[in-house]
Design brief:
About 15% of the residues are buried. Strands 1-7-6 form a three-stranded antiparallel sheet, with no helix packed on it. By secondary structure, the chain is mostly beta strands. It has helices at about 15-20, 90-95; strands at about 1-5, 10, 25-30, 30-40, 50, 60-65, 70-75, 85.
Length: about 100
């Protein structure tokens, strides 16, 4: 089930400037990384507030339409009303950050 598209500014990738930006998705075209990113830190939609989970209820996929890459979020299982949405940010995201702690 379609949930939404991750949106933001498409910017040139600058590793040092965006290293600690939590709102960045790599921009991929034809299955390869590009020198661009989708940056939702200052502008985007609700999807930039979706949290990480090791057991997510959403899956992100790159979809290319008319030569433009879109990050689409899909539900990977039934999500009850009032349940938090989450997806796995991936290993690349956690390389420059400390992994989240479990809340008990």
């Amino acid at each position: 089930c379609y949930i939404g598209e991750y949106t933001g500014f498409v910017r040139k990738r600058r590793f040092h400037k965006y290293r600690f930006n939590d709102y960045v998705f790599g921009y991929v075209a034809a299955g390869k990384n590009t020198p661009y990113i989708i940056d939702a830190k200052e502008q985007g939609n609700f999807s930039r507030f979706i949290n990480h989970s090791d057991a997510p209820n959403l899956t992100s996929r790159w979809v290319v339409k008319e030569g433009l890459t879109h990050i689409i979020l899909f539900a990977n299982k039934f999500i009850p009303k009032d349940k938090q949405l989450s997806y796995d940010y991936g290993d690349t995201y956690w390389r420059s950050r400390s992994h989240p702690s479990l809340i008990t």
